[in-house]
Design goal:
Length: 132
């Protein structure tokens, strides 16, 4: 005779399963954080990944809250990573734009000073009297 374990009493804490949407949100958020470090090119991909991850995280969080059988940890971590990616993308893009603007101003200033002062090449001038 095979004897199994008795069923758990009602109301006992059951082990929560991982939330698939939350894991997907976390992966999208982490990828968005990695892409957001690229100053000028990372803004659009980081925002796209962060928005997709944010939607997945919100749906996963709502499903976890209503279902009570899945964990809310992954959706919250995914949402946090997505928000962080958006903040980093905007910050690094602003820093990059500022650096490019300063470089353009410096180049224009140097070009203006070079045009206003004549440059000497260091070669002796040739005149008709030097041949005598």
């Amino acid at each position: 005779m095979t004897q199994g374990y008795p069923p758990p009493p009602p109301g006992a804490a059951s082990e929560k399963k991982a939330n698939g949407l939350g894991i997907a949100a976390l992966v999208c958020g982490l990828l968005a954080v990695l892409v957001s470090w690229i100053p000028l090119c990372g803004l659009i991909p980081a925002f796209a990944l962060a928005i997709i991850g944010g939607i997945l995280g919100l749906v996963g969080l709502l499903a976890a809250i209503s279902d009570k059988r899945t964990s809310v940890a992954f959706p919250i971590a995914g949402l946090s990573a997505c928000v962080l990616a958006m903040v980093l993308a905007v910050t690094f893009t602003m820093i990059g734009v500022g650096a490019v603007g300063k470089a353009a101003e410096e180049a224009a200033r140097r070009a203006a000073t070079q045009q206003s002062t004549p440059q000497s090449t260091g070669a002796p001038s040739t005149s008709s009297e030097s041949g005598r």
